[in-house]
């Protein structure tokens, strides 16, 4: 009997190895990423990068991008409570207590990162995203100020269709989760297409005082008004409201992990103060790309946004009126020196201007009371860039680029003392060069190396943080990144290996601190030493087939080793030099399994093992390591002519881990923890018309 099992196993392995179909080879060869002004094969790219397809985005729970983003080595996304997200790319959450900073994010080639340096990623509905491209490491030479990398989101609706297509998805789950999402792509004629993405999401939340209510509508329009010219529009409106339950101490966590922050000393509880964030935002942009001739292309866009934000907090009630306006344009020239040697040249600029009115009042249980402080700030930043690329026989690519970044802030106090004139903070002009090379040693093996400078100026939210004071002493983060990587396609291109090693030496890192009242402030921290190794493997063990119990089988494994430490950091009489960098786990190991069975039955599993995380600069408090297991099963069936229905069900935290996803850093009073839900479930249906 054992011999029969062994023979069957050998036959199965032989079958898996033998099925090297042309379809999977073609799919691998077509993996492209839009980076550095054009699409190019990911295999030959000079940067460490990742591409998240629509299928991967939808492989887990749909209300948030957290699970799929964390499959990318070097990227960490956290959820403090429904609607409250943080993101760090090759870095720490030290600067991102409630949002996204020092990472540049684009939506359909429009900067979603505003002039003040903040990115409200929670305004986007994940269902509206078709693809996510991620460039890791500082890339300020072309994309403006950043020290972690660049993330580009591309919406559904820009892939040309010949007939209308409508998708409606309904999801329900634990803790009062309900989500409705609609995507409609409507071809107007052969040259014009309109897409509508609409969603409504609500949740009661796992913890007390953590409900979410989010409504979005997004329009995408593209018009090819000439043979080599195209006009695009992206615009959305989001009405977002979510309660903020606040951090808990260890004792409070063990007593009742679902409670919101209770009353402490003179400070009332989060529920009593109705702590929450309400954000109503309009965002829109128009872009035009014209090929003047076969070699010369002109790209230009204009974009703007308006944010109306209300934030009742424990100690005050903040109102923010934020407006942003900007443009990005460049000229691209592509030609040949010879039959085997081509080159590219690009010149351009990206500029933004932001106007911010920030008013703070007493918080009388969710109602604005007497004024505390009122300030008006303006932020302007410009990035001028130039790039050249040489390509020889599609084997060797050499890139040289440089950017000049200017960043200034003007501010004027309106209360309690009205200033007659504006004061200014000038972060100076900073050159950001990058040099990179990629060489195809074989048709399936590419090695790459790069050196680049990172630069990230203090954001408006750091210069004027929740302590209601203007911090004129903050300096920009700067640093130099050295990197080496390799990509390798094996087993007839059915196994993809990608690995990189880097070292980033950062000066003047910006770090969050908390005052006794709970208000935050920021300061620079000398030097930080960031060394890391990232590796990923994706294997198509069984290519798509129409027979057998398993119709396709794909496994993936992603690993990050983060050896980050304070190199020189002293606060008063406390010296933290040599300590581990706050909020960074030493290792993260993520594994995925995707299986397709007969009758379009699909299973997606995700495992995330994250090491312990230091929560304070002194390394005296750690969040425990955890193993998060998530799963989703779906079944699809064609109904009628060209229609399809999909039923799905999933579970999060299958191992019932007690963990905190989105810890408060350097929290006063030991309130570090924002506990995540225990085992929970969801399910729903998707209708395609």
UniProtKB/TrEMBL annotation:
Keyword Zinc-finger: no
TonB-dependent receptor-like beta-barrel domain ranges (all copies): 175-654
Topology with respect to the bilayer: Multi-pass membrane protein
Domain TonB-dependent receptor plug: 44-149
Keyword rRNA-binding applies: no
InterPro entries: Beta-barrel_TonB (IPR000531), Beta-barrel_TonB_sf (IPR036942), Plug_dom (IPR012910), Plug_dom_sf (IPR037066), TonB-dep_rcpt-like (IPR039426)
Compartment list: Cell outer membrane
Keyword list, A-Z: Cell outer membrane, Membrane, Receptor, TonB box, Transmembrane, Transmembrane beta strand, Transport
Matching Gene3D superfamilies: TonB-dependent receptor, beta-barrel domain, TonB-dependent receptor, plug domain
Region (Disordered): 252-271
Family listed: Belongs to the TonB-dependent receptor family.
Name of this chain's protein: TonB-dependent receptor
């Amino acid at each position: 009997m054992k011999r029969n099992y062994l023979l069957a196993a050998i036959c199965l392995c032989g079958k898996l190895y033998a099925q090297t179909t042309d379809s999977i080879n073609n799919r691998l060869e077509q993996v492209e990423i839009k980076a550095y002004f054009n699409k190019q094969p990911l295999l030959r790219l000079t940067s460490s990068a990742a591409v998240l397809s629509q299928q991967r985005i939808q492989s887990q729970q749909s209300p948030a991008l957290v699970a799929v983003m964390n499959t990318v080595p070097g990227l960490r996304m956290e959820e403090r409570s429904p609607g409250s997200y943080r993101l760090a790319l090759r870095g720490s959450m030290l600067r991102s207590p409630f949002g996204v900073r020092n990472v540049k994010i684009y939506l359909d080639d429009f900067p979603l990162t505003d002039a003040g340096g903040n990115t409200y990623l929670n305004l986007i509905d994940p269902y509206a995203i078709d693809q996510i491209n991620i460039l890791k490491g500082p890339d300020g030479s072309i994309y403006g100020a950043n020290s972690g990398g660049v993330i580009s989101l591309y919406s559904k609706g820009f892939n040309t269709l010949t007939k209308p297509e409508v998708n409606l998805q309904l999801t329900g789950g634990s803790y009062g989760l309900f989500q409705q999402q609609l995507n409609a792509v409507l071809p107007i004629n052969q040259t014009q297409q309109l897409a509508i993405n609409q969603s409504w999401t609500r949740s009661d939340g796992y913890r007390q005082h953590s409900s979410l209510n989010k409504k979005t509508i997004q329009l995408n329009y593209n018009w090819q008004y000439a043979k080599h010219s195209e006009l695009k529009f992206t615009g959305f409106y989001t009405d977002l409201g979510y309660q903020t339950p606040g951090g808990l101490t260890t004792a409070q966590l063990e007593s009742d992990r679902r409670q919101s922050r209770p009353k402490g000393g003179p400070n009332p509880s989060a529920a009593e103060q109705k702590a929450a964030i309400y954000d109503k935002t309009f965002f829109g942009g128009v872009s035009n790309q014209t090929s003047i001739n076969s070699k010369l292309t002109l790209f230009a866009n204009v974009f703007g946004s308006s944010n109306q934000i209300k934030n009742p907090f424990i100690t005050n009630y903040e109102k923010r009126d934020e407006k942003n306006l900007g443009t990005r344009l460049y000229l691209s020239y592509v030609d040949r020196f010879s039959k085997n040697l081509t080159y590219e040249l690009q010149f351009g600029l990206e500029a933004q201007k932001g106007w911010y009115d920030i008013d703070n009042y007493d918080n009388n249980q969710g109602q604005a009371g007497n004024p505390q402080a009122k300030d008006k700030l303006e932020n302007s930043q410009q990035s001028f860039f130039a790039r050249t690329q040489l390509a020889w026989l599609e084997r060797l690519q050499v890139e040289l680029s440089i950017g000049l970044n200017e960043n200034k802030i003007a501010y004027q106090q309106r209360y309690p003392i009205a200033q007659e004139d504006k004061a200014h903070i000038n972060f100076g002009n900073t050159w950001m060069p990058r040099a990179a090379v990629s060489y195809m040693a074989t048709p399936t093996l590419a090695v790459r190396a790069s050196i680049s400078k990172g630069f990230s100026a203090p954001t408006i939210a750091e210069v004027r943080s929740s302590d209601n004071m203007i911090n004129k002493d903050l300096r920009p983060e700067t640093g130099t990144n050295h990197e080496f990587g390799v990509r390798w396609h094996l087993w007839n291109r059915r196994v993809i290996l990608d690995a990189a090693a880097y070292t980033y030496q950062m000066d003047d890192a910006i770090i969050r601190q908390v005052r006794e009242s709970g208000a935050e402030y920021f300061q620079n921290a000398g030097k930080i030493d960031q060394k890391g190794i990232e590796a990923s493997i994706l294997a198509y063990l069984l290519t798509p087939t129409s027979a057998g119990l398993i119709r396709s089988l794909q496994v993936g494994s992603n690993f990050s080793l983060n050896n980050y430490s304070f190199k020189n950091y002293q606060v008063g009489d406390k010296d933290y030099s040599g300590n581990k960098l706050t909020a960074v786990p030493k290792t993260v190991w993520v594994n995925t399994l995707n299986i397709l069975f007969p009758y379009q039955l699909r299973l997606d599993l995700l495992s995330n093992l994250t090491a312990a995380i230091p929560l304070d600069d002194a390394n005296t408090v750690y969040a425990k390591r955890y193993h998060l297991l998530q799963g989703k099963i779906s079944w699809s069936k064609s109904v009628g002519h060209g229609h399809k229905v999909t039923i799905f069900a999933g579970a999060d935290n299958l191992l019932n881990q007690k963990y905190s996803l989105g810890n408060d850093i350097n929290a006063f009073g030991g309130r570090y923890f924002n506990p995540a839900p225990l085992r929970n479930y969801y399910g729903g249906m998707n209708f395609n018309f």
